[in-house]
Structure of Cobalamin biosynthesis protein CobW:
Amino acid sequence: MNSSTAGRQIPVVVLAGFLGSGKTTLLNHLLRRRAGNRVAVIVNDFGAVEIDAMTVAGQVGSTVSLGNGCLCCAVDAAELDGYLDRLTRPAARIDIIVIEASGLAEPQELVRMILAGDNPRTVYGGLVEVVDAAEFDATRERHPETDRHLAIADLVVLNKTDRVTPAEHERVLGVIAELGPDAAVVSASYGRIDPGLLFDPATRPAEEEKVRQLSFEDLRTDEEDEGPAEDDGHAHHPHTGYESLSFDEPAAMDPRRLMAFLDSRPEGLYRVKGFVDFGAADPDNRYAVHAVGRFLRFYPEPWPRGTERRTQLVLIGSGIDHDALEKELRVCAVTGPDGDTTDEAAMWGVLRYVRPEPAAEEAAGPL
Ligand SMILES: Nc1nc2c(ncn2[C@@H]2O[C@H](COP(=O)(O)OP(=O)(O)OP(=O)(O)O)[C@@H](O)[C@H]2O)c(=O)[nH]1
């Protein structure tokens, strides 16, 4: 994907989950498999969990440990904005920011703070909720809010599946599906999800990589995993992977049909990104699209000179039906005589998702 407004924005991912569910383990896994990305981590130290900051500190370019206390309570929006401003300075060359929320944090508050932020260089990257498969029932009993967290998550990582039987695994998956029907769910042990779910391979110029000195990060190897070796069978478990589908369509997209598709994104489809050509409905602009979980934004920008007008999308998810998705998207293209992109009102549905002023967004309430 070439440079674009959406491309320049840095996704801010919220990593949540109850104490001991495996957030730090997952984060360390992502840091080892970061595919050349520079990952910044904001660790919310809570009480004795100062160790968390140390666990990740040796592996990241920039770690900002927020002081004591629960991030969503102790750190106000302005403070978080300050951290994000620092991390998104071009000189920091950060590709993705992960906020590891305290096990006690209300993730929704964090998500709201990110959405309400006024930093144009960041974009919401999704709420990832880590769940301990072995402690699932006990956690729900002790923390009834678990159900709410699962329901608002964009991606649920069902972790510690090595500690449950296949039958128990299936049962828990069934309960999660009932609680958060929109979220993509991936199963994992030791947090080994495919990083492609959260971030793309880095697109840094090759020369830059060449002149860079080897850092401590580069010297770390996968053998240093905290769990059993990767070839224990779990790494290749079908649930741990992600799938992606590329869609390329020369005909303009009908805004109403595309919105109908996006509004009813199927379960498992976690990310959608790319550019949309709405043809005569807006001949001047292409629309960068960024969807994660149920969050959706369009970023109109003038067509770069010499760029061929077409729609190019990448869809990423777990357990997605490629053929069905492709077919549904082709139907959105204006290919037949009944296709119409000249109706101005047809764009209203799209414009609802063009980023409003931060204040307006905050007032709009839920995602
Ligand atoms: N058996 C098993 N153990 C795991 C797995 N993932 C993490 N653990 C272990 O579970 C413990 C807690 O993992 P952490 O990654 O520290 O969990 P956390 O959610 O960051 O914990 P807090 O920081 O307390 O909120 C550690 O001892 C991990 O090694 C897993 O998939 N299977």
Observations:
- Residues 17, 19-25, 49, 52, 103, 159-160, 162-163, 189-191, 226 surround guanosine-5'-triphosphate (CB under 6 Å).
- The domain at 243-363 is CATH 3.30.1220.10 (Hypothetical Protein Yjia; Chain: A;domain 2).
- The mean pLDDT is 76.
- The longest strand covers residues 122-132.
